[in-house]
Design goal:
The protein has about 270 residues and is of the alpha/beta class. Helices cover about 45% and strands about 15% of the residues. The strands form two sheets. It has a seven-stranded parallel sheet, with helices on both faces. Strand 7, helix 6 and strand 8 form a beta-alpha-beta unit. The chain starts with a helix and ends with a strand.
Length: about 270
């Protein structure tokens, strides 16, 4: 997204004096709500935004918000665990005449329970969405990035990528897998100009975190506020991270001002 002769030929000037390349696109999976939506809104106007998700109503609403901000957006309805969704997304991008400069693998799911009684179907569901879904989009984008000799892949990990959490075996295993995937991509494709950065935030205020809060309420028979305080206490700053903070870091990663970050997990936890 830096200004260049190529951008000057095919882009236009933005209000802050930078240039948007009208051919560049950023894919954000899980882009209709939560962290994905915050990322889409933060990057609006700096690149063409392509949001992917299962809920068309949420995607349409996010697209409208981006356009109200003066940005350009498309959406694709689909389950990232289905490889056809990645294919459909690339077809849409090609139809628009865009090229993928940034891929943000944000879509994810997670449910907990004791490991000894973990339902194998739940294990596979979490792996399919978090790990397989990321892989399908990465495989779809790498050929174009290799041809361009540049690209940024931002993979949404978690503090669960670098430590364990009780009663969350599937989620933790999936997030560890994503960190391993990011490190492998960095080694494999770094020499070709592709930068891969895994982000590892602590508890972020999302629907998943709210489910954890409500689950804690039920188990401990306490109020929402009390349960929220306990969850917030897991983060060293004793607060649940707003999605906008994660979006700001994704924006920094996609600007690619520090390519040597490739493969290094960026911990966003306030000190953990």
């Amino acid at each position: 997204m830096r200004a260049s002769n190529r951008m000057a030929r095919c882009g236009f000037w933005l209000y802050d004096g930078s240039i948007m390349d009208t051919q560049q696109a950023t894919i954000i999976t899980g882009g209709g709500k939560g962290i994905g939506k915050a990322i889409a809104l933060r990057m609006a106007g700096t690149t063409n935004i392509v949001i992917v998700g299962r809920n068309e109503e949420e995607l349409v609403a996010t697209k409208r918000e981006i356009e109200d901000m003066g940005g350009t957006a498309e959406y694709v309805v689909g389950d990232v665990a289905d490889p056809a969704t990645a294919t459909k997304t690339m077809v849409r991008i090609q139809e628009k005449g865009w090229t993928v400069t940034n891929l943000v693998c944000n879509a994810g799911t997670g449910k907990g329970g004791p490991t000894a009684t973990l339902d194998p179907h739940l294990w596979h569901e979490i792996m399919e969405v978090n790990v397989d879904g990321s892989l399908y989009f990465i495989q779809a984008c790498i050929p174009g990035m290799l041809e361009q000799k540049h690209g940024v892949i931002c993979i949404m990990g978690s503090m669960a990528s670098v430590r364990g959490y009780k009663n969350n075996a599937a989620y933790v295993a999936s997030k560890h897998a994503l960190l391993g995937l990011a490190r492998t991509l960095a080694v494999e494709y770094g020499k070709h100009g592709i930068v891969t950065v895994p982000l590892c935030p602590g508890f972020v205020m999302t629907e998943m975190t709210e489910r954890s809060i409500r689950g804690l309420m039920k188990r401990k028979k306490i109020s929402f506020e009390e349960a929220e305080k306990i969850i917030a206490g897991v983060n060293p700053q004793r607060r649940i991270i707003p999605p906008e903070e994660v979006a700001e870091m994704v924006m920094f990663v996609c600007e690619n001002k520090v390519p040597s970050l490739s493969g290094s997990p960026l911990i966003l936890s306030g000190g953990e």
